[in-house]
């Protein structure tokens, strides 16, 4: 980005939030690609799933202490949903500096369902749940992700603003938002709390599953009788 381009934009998404987003995409992609027993990277399935869990722990804390548009109080606005949806259906979609009111529901749903998929996966691994339920939940998450990406692309087209680019650079154009100031960034204390959330989550995960972050050979549970010879 050239210097003049930079000054014609303003900060929206803080760096840890963007790292969270793209690392979560990476972790969930690896979880899906490794989910089949026959996958060449099958042993990475639980590592990917547990990594997503540590990322979620970070996001929960960040929702209280993170940068301005990362905070739950600043984007969960149930009362604004009706107006937003009406404008959208009437053909006047409105841009939002942070998440739009409808998108905020998707954010909560994505985070919540990811948590449920992880919980079900760890229950399967612990032998307390049928793998079919975990699989069905994972495919519901995949459908929600499809909806999420579709909505991001559609809103980008309708509002003439490249939302994906903003989630990469963290910045939006002043020309689209006259008089909007730089978003308030996270402080040093927030960064420490965010890091602490990740460390504590990793400790808790390793207490539950000591091999959580070591690639594990998975055994097929297709039949009730293990083959041995
Ligand atoms: C595994 C797949 C994905 C998951 C689980 C996911 C999840 C999320 C979550 C939780 C947020 C909210 C950010 C926050 O405040 O924490 C978000 C926002 C966003 N995601 Fe994704 N995402 C995924 C894939 C993608 C992909 C592939 C793209 C790009 C094509 C994308 C583009 C965006 C954008 C642009 C936003 C900001 C939306 C806005 O402007 O309000 N996401 N995503
Ligand atoms: C976002 C996270 C996750 C996603 C998207 C995901 C997805 C999936 C999918 C689609 C399957 C079905 C594979 C098949 O067709 O056989 C599966 C199986 C499984 N997953 Fe996950 N999973 C996630 C997290 C986890 C976690 C955190 C654990 C454990 C700690 C876990 C443990 C398992 C186990 C044990 C199986 C059964 C493997 C087998 O015996 O075939 N998963 N997962």
TrEMBL record:
<protein>
    <recommendedName>
        <fullName>Cytochrome b561 bacterial/Ni-hydrogenase domain-containing protein</fullName>
    </recommendedName>
</protein>
<dbReference type="GO" id="GO:0009055">
    <property type="term" value="F:electron transfer activity"/>
</dbReference>
<dbReference type="InterPro" id="IPR016174">
    <property type="entry name" value="Di-haem_cyt_TM"/>
</dbReference>
<feature type="transmembrane region" description="Helical">
    <location>
        <begin position="141"/>
        <end position="164"/>
    </location>
</feature>
<feature type="transmembrane region" description="Helical">
    <location>
        <begin position="17"/>
        <end position="35"/>
    </location>
</feature>
<dbReference type="Pfam" id="PF01292">
    <property type="entry name" value="Ni_hydr_CYTB"/>
</dbReference>
<dbReference type="InterPro" id="IPR011577">
    <property type="entry name" value="Cyt_b561_bac/Ni-Hgenase"/>
</dbReference>
<dbReference type="GO" id="GO:0005886">
    <property type="term" value="C:plasma membrane"/>
</dbReference>
<feature type="transmembrane region" description="Helical">
    <location>
        <begin position="185"/>
        <end position="208"/>
    </location>
</feature>
<keyword id="KW-1003">Cell membrane</keyword>
<dbReference type="InterPro" id="IPR051542">
    <property type="entry name" value="Hydrogenase_cytochrome"/>
</dbReference>
<keyword id="KW-0472">Membrane</keyword>
<dbReference type="GO" id="GO:0022904">
    <property type="term" value="P:respiratory electron transport chain"/>
</dbReference>
<feature type="domain" description="Cytochrome b561 bacterial/Ni-hydrogenase">
    <location>
        <begin position="12"/>
        <end position="170"/>
    </location>
</feature>
<feature type="transmembrane region" description="Helical">
    <location>
        <begin position="41"/>
        <end position="62"/>
    </location>
</feature>
<feature type="transmembrane region" description="Helical">
    <location>
        <begin position="102"/>
        <end position="121"/>
    </location>
</feature>
<keyword id="KW-1133">Transmembrane helix</keyword>
<dbReference type="GO" id="GO:0020037">
    <property type="term" value="F:heme binding"/>
</dbReference>
<keyword id="KW-0812">Transmembrane</keyword>
């Amino acid at each position: 980005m050239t210097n003049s381009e930079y000054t014609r934009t303003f900060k929206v998404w803080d760096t840890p939030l963007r790292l969270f987003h793209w690392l979560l995409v990476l972790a969930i992609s690896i979880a899906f690609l490794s989910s089949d027993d026959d996958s060449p990277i099958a042993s990475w399935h639980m590592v990917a799933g547990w990594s997503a869990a540590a990322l979620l722990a970070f996001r929960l804390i960040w929702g209280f202490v993170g940068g301005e548009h990362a905070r739950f109080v600043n984007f969960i606005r149930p009362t604004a949903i009706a107006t937003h949806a009406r404008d959208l259906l009437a053909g006047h979609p409105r841009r939002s500096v942070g998440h739009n009111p409808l998108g905020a529901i998707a954010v909560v749903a994505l985070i919540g369902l990811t948590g449920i998929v992880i919980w079900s996966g760890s229950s399967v691994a612990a032998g307390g749940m049928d793998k079919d339920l975990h699989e069905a939940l994972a495919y519901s998450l995949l459908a929600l992700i499809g909806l999420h990406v579709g909505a991001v692309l559609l809103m980008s087209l309708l509002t003439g603003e490249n939302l994906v680019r903003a989630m990469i650079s963290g910045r939006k154009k002043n020309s689209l938002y006259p008089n909007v100031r730089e978003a308030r960034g996270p402080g040093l204390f927030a960064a420490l709390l965010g890091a602490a959330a990740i460390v504590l989550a990793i400790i808790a995960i390793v207490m539950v599953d000591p091999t959580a972050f070591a690639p594990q050979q998975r055994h097929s549970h297709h039949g009730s009788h293990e083959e041995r010879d």
